[in-house]
Amino acid sequence: MSLIIYHNTIVKISEIYEQISDMESNLTGDYSFSPENVYQEGCPKNKAILGGLAEKFLLPGSRIENTEAIKELYRRSMAGESCLILSEHYSNFDFPIFYHLIEKNPSLGPKIAETLLPIRGMKLSEDSPITALFTRSYDTLIIYPSRSLDNITNTEKLAAIRKISIPINHAAMREMINRKKNSRIILVFPAGTRYRPWDPSSRKGVREIHSYIKTFDNVLFLAINGNALPPHKSGDMTRDTAIPDLMILTCSDIVKGREFRKIAEKSAPVDVDPKQYVVNRVMAELEAINNRVEPMRLKEKEKLGKLP
Question: Which of 62, 118, 183, 251 has a Cα at 20 to 30 A from 94?
């Protein structure tokens, strides 16, 4: 059973069942996985509930840094340019917290938050009914993540899954192209999974991100410092434990996607796949921002612990 900690007090999910139950009853859409259903609309009522829930996990001082970049990205999106956010990924709360911090920021607000369109893997809905409530509460594009195929060695099983995954992913890409042309800001986690300290490979970006970068006019890197829902080492999402944390989400300045790709490809060593090297540069950019912010965040958090 997932646990939530409010101000050092552990609270079981069952003890806030009323909120969970309300969220379940609010979801009335079609959540099947098919090429015809890769775009799924969120639920405004649930976004409000999750915003309140996220607020319980955000220690004072939690914020978005470089909000001017978000505002400029929104302006460009409204002007017809395609816009992509490439974000670090540490927990299943990452997007709800990002959405909430944008929504409540006076200089940003709900209009900007509502333009965000995250791409999520089917696994989030398949593995945990609780995380399914989170993901289904926001507008999303569904894909079949390549990481889900990496460990399948049975050729017959792999062929059967590809009959399902390939049509879904092709439909998702067509839908993404349509949505980005209509002022939606696409958000992707380039690692394709949450970072887990005991598994260094979980920080590696997936090669497919190269295809995203080359088709977007504008790219913004989003670093996430702090973690309000650290993954459980078992991999079982229902055993994740939520804890209040000081969350600082830092936006890079906007870069041109095609220029970033070309520069990275030209600098790739001769023995390295150029496409993977581009993605490696993305992960390096994110890690560099995170490393710069983390010492400051820890100092701020330490001061919070000394407050009466």
Answer: 183
